[in-house]
Amino acid sequence: MVALALVTSLLWGLADFGGGLLTRRLPALTVVVVSQALAAGVLGVVVVATGAWSEADGRLWFAVAAGAIGPLAMLLFYRALALGPMGVVSPLAATAVAVPIGVALVLGERPGLVQYAGMVIAFAGVVLAGGPRLGGAVSRRTLGYTAGAALGFGAVLALIAEASTTVTGLFLALFVQRLCNVVTGGAALWVAARRGTPVLPAEGRAPLLAALPSLAFVGLADVAANGTYALAARIGPTTVAVVLASLYPVVTALAARGVLRERLLAAQAAGAGLALAGTLLLASG
């Protein structure tokens, strides 16, 4: 469970970094729809190859709901990433963990004291890893987008964990989720185009076509992260799995440091250390 949750954080961190970069060159809604459409195409092949259609049951409605909420959350998040520093937006969005943790606690899950301590330490590390630079550095608009994204992401986490009980069923659930993402996001894209909002870069389609490999990576990394998270939540305590999976802002911050040369503050380095300490406590608990 621990390994799956940590892989989730790695994949989400890389997907967020890639998505944030793309939205600096392409409209955010276009990034969401195209990346999810490419991922849906790959998942469709997997579903046919594995015969996952036979796993269809009432749980798929959880995937439908997750797919309807997901595009809005991603759109808000990508807009926040495009407007503000990745190292601030990403850890603030990690407050999404409050939703599935709250659901798990209501359903009767009770972590041990060591795990509670690990959750607190790891979450504090995640926030610090982004670099607490809120004093005038981040606009209210960016914070509003981030808060909306966090709520949406939390709902998606809670829903997708309930969408299947088997691995092949998970393939089908992820496929249905992505189809709903594409339908919902595509409808929003059509409305935006009708209203005259640019859905392509000023240079035309060429930048979009050139970005297709990157868009495919973002979509597939996000899908894979959803899958590993769902498996981790099924194997071990959801409260532990979701906190470990929420370490992705550390990955995003490190990627921004390595690629964009964003300065890694002392607080960020301390946050990464706290996140590691919290991870060890969660794993040992």
UniProtKB/TrEMBL annotation:
The chain crosses the membrane at residues 6-22, 29-54, 60-81, 88-107, 113-131, 143-161, 167-193, 205-225, 231-251, 263-283. Keywords: Membrane, Transmembrane, Transmembrane helix. The keyword Transmembrane applies. Residues 2-129, 153-282 form the EamA domain. Coiled coil: none annotated. Signal peptide: none annotated. Gene3D superfamilies: 1.10.3730.20. The keyword tRNA-binding does not apply. SUPFAM superfamilies: Multidrug resistance efflux transporter EmrE. Belongs to the EamA transporter family. This is EamA family transporter.
